[in-house]
Description:
alpha+beta, two-stranded antiparallel ribbon, 4 helices
Amino acid sequence: MPEALPISLFSNQCLSFLSLLMALGKTFVVAARLSAALVLLGAVTVLCADLPARAEAEPPTHAAPATGPSVLSMRVVDGDTIENTVSGIRYRLENVDAAPTGDAAGCASERALGERATAAAEQLLGRARTLALTPTGRFDQAGKPLVFVSLDGRDLGELLMAQGAARPARARAEPWCDTAGDLLL
């Protein structure tokens, strides 16, 4: 009959084997996680590789957000008024006051400034790729909805004021000309 191994020797060998399995198990878990991370990174790389090419290949659109009018459906009436040519609704810019044009102008200088504001608004709208209207829920004295207009993410009223084509809106109408026909800026 073979001689029995002492229990302590057997238990030491088992403990060593179990320690080896535990160490290998941790290594396998770390390796599996690293492999999964590399596979995920590879998938993201493949999916994103053609994004710049697709972005360049798509022609720029003149579409507005789904909830608003298109840049192409809007026209400038004057420096602080735009019209949706599809619906016929005229909107007044909330944050600016532009000089009137035509017979509504009080003097030649006012008329010229109003024409400059109209031209500046037309130029800015003509260059824009996107347009967003933000209604205030209020109306001007003529019943036009007061709105903020954003062109390519920039406020149209702020752009007009930066060009000197309009002034900040005031609570009540202020004259543009003095009695001598000079602008009151």
